[in-house]
Amino acid sequence: MSSTTTVRKRAATGALVGLALGDALGFPTEFNDVPQIVAKSGPWRHMPLPARAHVSDDTQMTLAVARGLRSAMDRGVLGPLPLERPVREEFVTWYHSPENNRAPGRTCLRACELLDDPERPWQDASQIDSKGCGANMRVAPIGLAPGLSDEQRAGAAQLQAALTHGHPTGLAAADLTAHAVRLLAHGTGPAALIGLLRAYALANRTRYHHAWLGGLWRRAQDPDAEHYIARGWDDCLAALDRLEAAVRDADPEDDPCLATGAGWIAEEALTTGLLCFLLFPDEPVTALRRAACSSGDSDSIACLTGAFAGAWLGADAWPTEWADRVEYGSELVTLGALWDE
Ligand SMILES: [Mg+2]
């Protein structure tokens, strides 16, 4: 698909609105199992968007990444330091915001508290053992911003992850999530997606982005940087294997978390989010409802499903009545329009 087509379908707007809708749909069900959700909201295929369509920390932190990325790109060539400064600032602003009351993750709170000290190198704030999904649920903007080289996109995806989550799987899953969003926005079809993601993971398996990550790997127990990052990609490759089997065998009426995992950890949020998209590639609202009606981290899974479906189908994927009332909707549409130009 040419970039003209990407622009015509408004992939960035579709992905940003989609992730907020998934987040708002899944937020009330994050800590419920499927029978509890059905008791509360009725049959999953008819799950309503709450009247007050509030999003969670997933969308708030996606906006933080998007705003930081935009500031960095407005100032010049995107590199590690130009990206770190504004994104770090946005994370700390989010940390102190009175709106930060949406069941935020512990890793993000702890890391942001440490990032708040401007004297501290970010690598010392990074939670080196955490591979919670908090770093890839917010990475979509990196896959949507136009004009980045492959190296900038990968470095930026991993750096924004590493500011809070230092486990190599957090970095690899964020990079892979941004890559998936990018591929779908540019016309890669659902049938080709898993193969391309696997190829990307294999090609990057021992590539440590020294310029972007500095000495982060030394905080872990690995003998060298390549060994550190390969652990992350190996987790992602194993998760992609399970995804491939699930796309083939899973019953769409079952809880998707039974097939590919509950999504509290980074690689499972990616693959369970992808599974819901791939089960219903042309029914974006059904895909979102499937993701939100799941036993695991429903808001993060549905957030990612919304990003994938929106990148693939564009802004028209979503009912106007939903898009118009989701929280932060107008800021997301403005950002999307900027990147869809
Ligand atoms: Mg959340």
TrEMBL record:
Keywords, ordered alphabetically: Hydrolase, Magnesium, Metal-binding
Xref: SUPFAM superfamilies: ADP-ribosylglycohydrolase (SSF101478)
Cofactor note as given: Binds 2 magnesium ions per subunit.
Superkingdom per UniProt: Bacteria
List of residues binding Mg(2+): S56, D57, D58, D297, D299, S300
Coiled coil stretches, renumbered: none
Pfam families in alphabetical order: ADP_ribosyl_GH
Named cofactor requirement(s): Mg(2+)
Single annotated GO MF: hydrolase activity
InterPro entries: ADP-ribosylglycohydrolase, Ribosyl_crysJ1, Ribosyl_crysJ1_sf
Protein's name in the database: ADP-ribosylglycohydrolase family protein
Gene source species: Streptomyces roseirectus
